[in-house]
Amino acid sequence: MISAHRRLASPRATGSPTRRPVAALLDRSSVDDLVEQLDAARDVLAGAFARTTQPLSGISPEAAAAGVAAVDLDRPLDGVGDVLDEVRRVYLDHAVWFHHPRYQAHLNCPVALPAVLGDVIAVAVNSSLDTWDQSGPATHMERHLLAWTAGRLGLPASADGIFTTGGTQSNLHALLLARGEALAAGADPARLRIVTSSDAHFSSRKAAMVLGLGEDAVVETAVDAAGRMDVEDLDAVLARLRTEGLVPMAVVATAGTTDRGCIDPLSSVARACRRHEVWLHVDAAYGGGLVTSRRRRHLLTGVERADSVTVDFHKTFFQPVACSAVLVADRATLRHVTHHAAYLNPSSDVAEDIPNQVDKSLQTTRRFDALKLWTTLRTLGPDRVGELLDTVIDLAAEVRGDLVGDPDFRVVTEGDLSTVLFRFVESDVDDERLDAVNEQARRRLYATGLGAVARTRLGGRTWLKLTLLNPATTLADVQQVLDLVRGHARAALAHPDEEVA
Ligand SMILES: *Cc1c(COP(=O)(O)O)cnc(C)c1O
């Protein structure tokens, strides 16, 4: 391990027969260098994983910034070994490790092992998925995966879609298509509205901003006690908008809300959308992985009636960032993002049936992000992916049950997926003070690096959140984090002035 390292650190001292300088580009002549460098990177990675005993180092933003600022980008280092050393020192030693069982904060997953393999190959070959003449079979592999996903969702044979960089882009893409349909039907752009629940992800609001509708074009429905869209209210909102001369261009239902992990009643929402003739987009960025679950696939019932669906493979399919897709029930709607450029994808290509994915994408040059999903499914198979997801959903349910009996915490008892919302409480302390104490507990824990939890607001109060996406995390790991939170909360109550970063 160390020898490979040294060899790369000073290539001239190695006695290498060719004594060639480090190659600038990857090609046939430098492929041996690539292999050698992958070996060295492997050692650095293996070392980092071996040394990782907690999810983060607890480094402060100031210290991290100083470490990075000290690097003079105008003065390259002497060899790949030194570069890897610097990467280790500046980045890996202080990275946030999603594979660590006590990382329980956000919607980040440990990555599927076969996905790394796929991504390394994708990066080295560097196919670009915009046109067939830059990608060859990669385009067909992407299409095969999109068709597979559409099939699992139960979308009709007319379905299609495209890979994107994430749920935010997938939602934007879907809403752009919905707007295109509304405008094609003669709607006044100033009167367009997007309807979603008050628990929905903020990316619909961002999409409204990007689409020139303004954030105010998003109208919220109420949710029930568990945080699922209230369909009666949806019905009322849609009727009211029409009465006011406004045009609901899309309803965004959420299959797995980011905080409470609840799935909107998709079948009833779909019925309301049909009745009011509104485009239904299902944001399944979080819950999309359920299509692989034998035990919980039924939670997505109704999604097959959507006009468009967002699925984030980089959440519940355990894929490295970025890996997401937007699917549409009617592939003809993708025309709203089509532009034919003479140099790239001329309309004559359509007549010749040349498959140019750029015709359906907001991006032009685009990574082969589908390959890592491909290698994952071909190695593990969908059932194993579903079992991994079921494991973390089971754990979340177990944790919620456990917290109900704990006098130090209040807990949100309902949830379809793998989040747990909880809050440290103390009987004689008011809610406002407890808000601050919970936030302090989160920060203090983060500063120790021993665990990571998130925070959010619900019902006007601050709650802490576990997002469990690591199948290796056990109930004992969660209890350890909760005990740490408890300790920090008590300390924050006793010594409120001891601020930490
Ligand atoms: C995570 C999430 C998004 C945003 O997805 P990114 O991949 O982070 O862009 C959108 N909607 C929901 C419900 C999410 O949980």
TrEMBL record:
Cofactor field: pyridoxal 5'-phosphate
One function term, GO molecular function aspect: transaminase activity
Chain segments carrying region Disordered: 1-20
Keyword set, alphabetical order: Aminotransferase, Decarboxylase, Lyase, Pyridoxal phosphate, Transferase
Lyase is among the record's keywords: yes
Top-rank taxon, per record: Bacteria
Chaperone among keywords: no
Pfam families (alphabetical): Pyridoxal_deC
InterPro entries according to UniProt: Aromatic_deC, PyrdxlP-dep_de-COase, PyrdxlP-dep_Trfase, PyrdxlP-dep_Trfase_major, PyrdxlP-dep_Trfase_small
UniProt similarity note: Belongs to the group II decarboxylase family.
Protein name: Aspartate aminotransferase family protein
Organism: Nocardioides imazamoxiresistens
